[in-house]
Specification:
With 254 residues, this protein is of the alpha+beta class. It has nine helices and seven strands; from the N terminus they run H-H-H-H-E-E-E-E-E-E-E-H-H-H-H-H. The protein has a five-stranded antiparallel beta sheet with strand order 6-5-4-1-7, with no helix packed on it.
Amino acid sequence: MRDKNRIRPFLNRIAEEWENHPDLRFGQFVMDVIPDQDKLWNCEESEFLRRLDVFANRASGNKAGTADNNRPVMTKDLNTFDNTPRKIRCIGRKHDFLGDGNYFTEEELEIGKEYTIVPHGGRHDGMFIHIKEHPRHTGYPYYLFEELEPYDEEIGKTAALLGLMKSLDEAEESIREGKLYSEEEVWQEFEKVIEGKDEARDPARIEVCLKVISNVWKKHPDMRLGQILQYALGDSDLWDVKDLDISEALKQME
């Protein structure tokens, strides 16, 4: 049996870095460190910590950048902010996603082949895209593809208008069904956002979440972190799972 005393120091290092990014859910944080659930399953703690250091260095470098560096460039490079289904061309299969000299190879992709970008159900961080020909929950790094046509700014304007109209329709439907918020309730929600009081992003939740992981993991010390999470969550996409739901799923393993 593997030494269970290794677990808490490992999670302490995760807590140290996660506290620098409290707006990330645990699943998002882990997937930013290891951007593939299959690789996460097989990732030993030593490798995870090495990649965590790479993530930390990359994140600290991003903080030093200007806002302009984070704006999408509307060129023939792939525009990840356009969810319109369309043809794109593969320009690469091998990539150093973490910037640490270790390359990933997307075996199923073919350089020069055209693929079909498809909407990804609301999950979007600008780094990954989904394609019809090879659907997978983690998506593919956007820079492995290029647009076949220059970006049309009208697409973004149309998408924004449709989104606004949909929100208005949903609001009218809620009114017809009697689903109304009082003025006090509306301001309470605003205050959470303005003053950062949303409990879902409270840094105090980090220790609570990791304590649950620690308690369960110590009962199954031969497992790796990725295995513990996948056994608890099943086929769920780790990126999308809320911290509270992770804790509740893990408690079922106690």
